[in-house]
Amino acid sequence: MMHILIELAVMPLVAFTIGMFMVLMMRKIAAKIQRRVGPPLLQPLYDIVKLYAKKTQSSHGLLHDIGIVMAVGGYIAAETMLPVPGMNGIADKAGLLTLAYVTMIPSLGLALGVGQCANPNGSIGIARALTAMLAYDIPFVVIIFGASWFYGSNNLIEVIAAQQAGGIASWGVTKMPLLAIAGLFTLYAMLGKQPFEIYVAPAEIATGPMVEMGGKHLGGLFVMQCFQLFTASAVYVSMFLGGGENWLFFILKLFAVVAIPMSMAFVFPRYRTEDVLAVVWRWPMVLGLAGVWLVMH
Amino acid sequence: MSTLQSIPVVATKAEKPSGGTGNLLANVFDELTAFCRSRSLFMLHYCTGCGAIELPPAMTSRFDMERLGIQPMVTPRQADILLVTGYVSTKTLKRIILTYEQMNSPKYVIGICSCTVNGGMYWQSYATAKVLADYMPVDMYIAGCMPRPEAVISGLRELMANIRAGRSDNWRDYYRRYDHYLGNQQRLFGENWQTPTDVIGEARHYGQFGPETLGEHTALLERHQTPLLPFEMRLGLGGEKTGVENKGDKR
Questions:
Q1: Nearest CA of chain B to the CA of A115: how many Å?
Q2: Where does the pLDDT of residue A75 fall: very low under 50, low under 70, confident under 90, or very high at 90 and above?
Q3: Which domain, by its residues, includes A205?
Q4: Is A77 in a helix, a strand, or coil?
């Protein structure tokens, strides 16, 4: 019992630390593409500490505060269900479907919080964010279905064990390449970077959902971003790249999975909302359905 | 206001570290926050004049502000620095004050270009607010017409050093001497000037209340203040006049 409690506390902390370095990597990649030096090593930490150390706050009411708690809390719950090397948390009691549910909570929490801000830019932004969620969650469910069908289980511990049994040859990416490609595409859309960042659109709707977030509220969202990067990449690594044999390989895989979409992201402008739907429902969806067909036959 | 020295730049002293002198760990947290504050600055550039043209090179690949932890942000809620880049007309100043009051403290104001220092080449203009520091506390002036990106970055570095040492606390001054700033604002905008932000209430709430927070000008404000009402929601079917009037736009 004590063992589980310690894991429940440690797993989100580890995820947060790794997520912070992923944010740093993302900003460094952007800087390198634009031929800049980029932020120093601990910049994400400075930002978060500074935001939490603001002296005055601009809260618009209870739901505004609770929305942020939901946004961070949803991901903290997700971390406890994602097995990492040496720690399983409550992963044996939850499956991929539970994870898909739990990772929706942050967007819904954010929608609640933004609603109370009563800022039109925020409302436009969150409407676009929820539409984008609709866009990437449907292929995501198709991919989860295909992977679960293939492994005969929805449980991530069993999925990882099945992949680690035979080395790279038994990884999801070699067994079901179409689903893996569709998964990477969906993950790209999930991370909400160019060209899928119409809901943020800084110059146009002033960062959309974040428009009224300052101080601790924005700090909460920065923490959420760290968790989001970790969660998305850890789910992908667990489904297709054999999970973590040890920490070194696990972290290398996580960073590689985030680096691939990020290296493409910063050279793109952005899609409009309807184009996001069209692209995400066309390519990863078709690839995913084809992958599911291959898996079932 | 002919010499640079006569322009009031408010400098507050660093707060004395509280707690016992023997305990080395007593100020660790304060030191950490001061360090992080100085190394992470989100700036909102209110591009009112020509100085704005010097900011893109300062932000992009040539001079790259992000290596100092300085990033552009797009809303006042997220920002730490308000960059006023150039001359400030009476009409613009209203928006700058609204923006400034919406920012979360600690917040810093930087006046770029000579126009924010003393009116610059707009000295004789009837529609230009000459001295920015009359209307809000300014932490740093970067003079020049226009200052080059090197000057902008060197000014920002100096601001970072001030924040690190606890010397840049002018946001408190806006609360403590609100009557003074409000008086200058009323002189320019008329006595029925008001903003949506309840500065006096904030000063009370955050313990920044000073002897000069209230005065004759805030008394005038209270006399003219109309309560801010939420927008009336009406569903009209085309052509029908809604009768909803934005009180903020009357100013």
A1: 14
A2: very high
A3: 2-296
A4: helix
**Locate tokens 């030096």: which residue?**
A37
What is the rounded distance in angstroms from the CA atom of residue A215 to the CA atom of residue A50? Answer: 8
Whether the bond between B56 and the residue before it is cis, its omega within 30 degrees of 0, is: no
State which residue of chain B sits closest to A36, comparing Cα positions.
B61
Burial B72-86 (b: 16+ CB within 10 A, else e): bbbbbbbbbbbbbbb
Beta bridge partners of A266: none
Residue with tokens 């490609």: A181
| Cα-based distances in Å from A16 to A71, A222, B13 | 14, 10, 37
Residue B129 in tokens:
């607010």
Residues belonging to chain B: 251
Instruction: Enter the tokens of residue B185.
Output: 């604002």
* Helical residues (DSSP H) of chain A, grouped into ranges: 2-33, 43-52, 62-80, 96-102, 105-117, 120-151, 156-164, 172-175, 177-191, 202-205, 215-240, 247-265, 273-296
**Spatial contact of A249 and A86, defined as CB atoms under 8 Å apart:** no
Buried b (16+ CB within 10 A) or exposed e, A78-110: bbbbbbbeebbbebeebbbebbbebbebbbbbb
Q: Total structural domains in chain A?
A: 1
Tokens of A25: 């990597």
Q: In chain B, whose CA is at the least distance from the CA of A27? A: B66
Q: B32-67 in b/e burial notation, b at 16+ Cβ within 10 A?
A: ebbebbbbbbbbbbbebbbbbebbebbbeeebbbbe
Task: Give the model confidence (pLDDT) of A206-249 as tens digits.
Answer: 888 888 888 889 999 999 999 999 999 999 998 888 887 888 88
Fold for B33-168, please state it.
Rossmann fold (3.40.50)
Residue that is written with structure tokens 């300085």 in the block: B70
Residue of B227, B218, B215 lying closest to B191 (CA atoms): B218
B54-110 tens-digit pLDDT? 888 888 888 888 889 898 888 998 899 999 988 888 888 999 999 999 899 889 999
Predicted complex ipTM = 0.82
Q: Could you write out the DSSP letters of every residue in A2-50?
A: HHHHHHHHHHHHHHHHHHHHHHHHHHHHHHHHTT-----TTHHHHHHHH
Which residues of chain B does A46 touch, with a Cβ-Cβ cutoff of 8 Å?
A: 35-36, 39-40, 69
Question: What is chain A's length?
Answer: 297
Opening angle at CA B125, ends B122 and B126, nearest 5: 150
- Cis omega before residue A269 (within 30°)? no
What tokens were used for A189? 């859309």
Q: Are A221 and A140 within 8 A, CB to CB? A: no
Count of CB pairs separated by less than 8 Å, A with B:
91
Q: Where are the domains of chain B?
A: 33-168, 169-227
Token couple for B93: 């100043």
Residue in A closest to B77 by C-alpha: A214
Q: Is A215 on the interface with B (CB under 8 A)?
A: yes
